[in-house]
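2 proteins. here.
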Amino acid sequence: MKIFTTILIVLALGLVIFNLTLLDFNKPFEGNSMVALIGIAASLCAIFILLIFRMSKKIEEKLKN
């Protein structure tokens, strides 16, 4: 499970980087820049959820032992 979450985190980071290249910093709330902002926010949410999931699994393992 650790490898799977790591792969998903790396993919989400890749999406953040890709969306940063699409972002127009002069007009961030117009056209494709708005879609890029939504993609960045969604990818960051996915990263945080995966990190929380990984920490909960570590806590669960410690409680079992």
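next one coming up
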Amino acid sequence: MRASIQGLLKSVGLRSETFGTTQDFLRSGRQDGPSCLVLDVRLPGVNGLDFQRQLADAGVQIPIIFVTGHGDIPMTVRAMKSGAVEFLTKPFRDQDLLDAIHQALDRDKAMHQQQSELAELRKCYESLTPREREVMTPVVSGTLNKQNSL
């Protein structure tokens, strides 16, 4: 299944890596640029839903697309409530997987953009003097500067 998905992705110009275990994935480190994880529910050692939770608990933010031959509604609901982009049951159409991957990559790109903007805002905030920070709070909340009793 991994080789088949990798071949599909290569055929449309998407780079991919495959991993035999969750530990292999964790050891690999996250690559720069948008990415996502296509994850089977049934994995050696830990199931995919538990691994999704472990990633979230560890602060690893990566969009996940689940694929399974053994899915049910409660499993799908759990995955989606935990932030999965898609939950595909085997056999699935190649185009459905590609659409989900593009959606996940777009989501990851937007998340990285938001994190970058937030980091820039924090940097700007840290450069303010204590007085500027004091004045900024009511101004940001919509109070006119002349209304402040600072």
